[in-house]
Amino acid sequence: MTCLPEIAPGQKKLGLVIDLDTCVGCQACATNCKEWNASGHSAPLPDLKPYSAGAEGVWFNRVHSFEAGEGEAGRTVHFPRSCLHCETPACVTVCPTGASYKRAEDGIVLVNADTCIGCGLCAWACPYGAREMDEDEGVMKKCTLCIDRIYNETIPEAQRQPACVLTCPTKARHFGDLGDPDSAVSRLVAERGGQPLMPELGYSPVNRYLPPRKRATPPAKPVEDAPTHMDVKNPLLRWVDRVLTRMPAMESERQV
Amino acid sequence: MNPAPSIVFFTTASGAGYGLLFWLGLLRPLGLVPGGQGFGLTALVLALVLVTAGLLSSTAHLGNPRRAWRAVSQWRSSWLSREGVAALATYVPAGIFGLALLTDRPGLAAAMGLLAAAGAVATVYCTGMIYASLPPIRQWHHPLVVPGYLVLSAFSGAALLAMLCGFWGDGVVAVVLALLGGGAALVLKRAYWRAIDAAPPEATVESATSLGFIGKVRPLEPPHTETNYLLREMGFRIARKHAARLRHITLLAGFAAPMLLALLALLLGGGLAAAALTLAAVLALGGLLVERWLMFAEATHTVTLYYSGN
Ligand code: SF4
Ligand code: SF4
Ligand code: SF4
């Protein structure tokens, strides 16, 4: 059913919080996502021409790098991009078959590969480029928030997290219930001012991005060692140096 | 957006077919087109052939065409589903219309013709809404897109009707409609192009990354070195180089030339008129193919913000 579930206050909204301050763009999350999901709920994630020029394939997570700002204020920011499990996503409502749906119980947006006709309309409707067509099977694929890990009772509890979150070497990725204001992820978003992406399009994305922290104030410029008189080898110049040192300095020099 | 040939052909052909069905169903009861059985059946068959060819070609775009029947299930939320429902539903009165013509029952023919005309409008409206309800593509998420689909369908349908009327030697009303349709299409497309050229993009790479608070944002490294589905489907850029020229071709060859030929036909009459109107219909359909191709090729999707910054 492609009508969206009603939004009740306090409803569970599972999602990711991604820290743009600490992400180092290592691609581990994208790689581990591909690894897990190639045999998970939406398997396979096909690759076209995997061993030759023009290799490409279906990935649920893509890590971009951006430059923001100019000069000293400028920064390089690594930016993982995946489904934001939006609250009011047109990717679900445009689907003609009901294959694209949003779960009422936790807000995860999924595709039913058995009923998808591969029309591609949902990929057009996603502003974030989070859906990629499996051109072998002719069905749409997307991030499942590792639905086959987070509820999986056959793996240790500590591992019931999305693959990307578990693998991140800098702990830049967090998973939890963003509908619960007291959850760890919600508190993190509140503390760090987590941001939604393109809120102006009205999709109400659930995932949040933590902004890069402000730089610490830069230290004062390094000062050169003041030369002593004994550094001047020539006796005549040493005498000139002494005389000059005793003379009152001019206004502009005093500040140096 | 990638102008997939199957969709460009589909919206042009079935748009013209529904336009023809609309005018035939509407004008026949009013006695404004030739009333004989031959004319009615020829026009109806031409309309349904175009509609059906278009619909079949649109299923070629699907990854799983054998499941296409599922597409009519979500009419509550999806305009694509509604289009499918409207298209299928329109076949019912159109079919009975044809039977009534064959068995010479004028009352039934008139009623079913009018119903089919309503179905044609509803279907083309749904087609327009599929595009207009996609916020990531600002050139489609625009109030002039649905009127554009309706007017162009009415224009191309009128051009086809005028052509047929030309062969039956009784074309004044249809020719006038084609002239009006061409004029409306010309005005509307120009207004649309002016509007999308002037409108600032709603989303920017700054809002797409939430990094605008630092300053201007530029893509530094893409996530992959080769292309992918997103870039092939949504990052199509070839047309923008030729956009201005293709717009002129649409306006001149697609709208202005058919209008001139229609005027000429009014003056000439007879066999020459039929020839001029045929050429007008061919030009109109050709112009619409260019227009529909541009409609895709000029459309930009917000996902390209992540890759190219604009
Ligand atoms: S990010 Fe895209 S695919 Fe995911 S829910 Fe939002 S609109 Fe749908
Ligand atoms: S590609 Fe599949 S999931 Fe997407 S809109 Fe079409 S039928 Fe629905
Ligand atoms: S694994 Fe962590 S640090 Fe590496 S790209 Fe992903 S989010 Fe960034």
Main β-sheet of chain B: number of strands, strand sense, barrel status? none
Largest sheet of chain A: 3 strands, mixed
Bound compounds, please? iron/sulfur cluster
Q: Tell me what the CATH architecture of chain B is.
A: Up-down Bundle
Count of separate DSSP helical elements of chain B: 11
Order of helices and strands of chain A: EHEEEEHEEHEEHHEHEHH
How many domains comprise the coordinates of chain A? 1
Strand order in space, largest sheet of chain A? 10-1-11
Beta-strand content bin of chain A: 15-25%
The radius of gyration of chain B is 21 Å
Write the CATH homologous superfamily of chain B: Formate dehydrogenase/DMSO reductase domain
Q: What structural class is derived from the secondary structure elements of chain A?
A: alpha+beta
Under the CATH scheme, which class of chain B?
Answer: Mainly Alpha
Low-confidence segments of chain B, ≥5 residues, pLDDT <50?
A: none
Low-confidence stretches of chain A: none
Spatial gap, N to C terminus of chain B: 14 Å
CATH topology of chain A: Alpha-Beta Plaits
Calculate the mean pLDDT score of chain B and round it.
Answer: 94
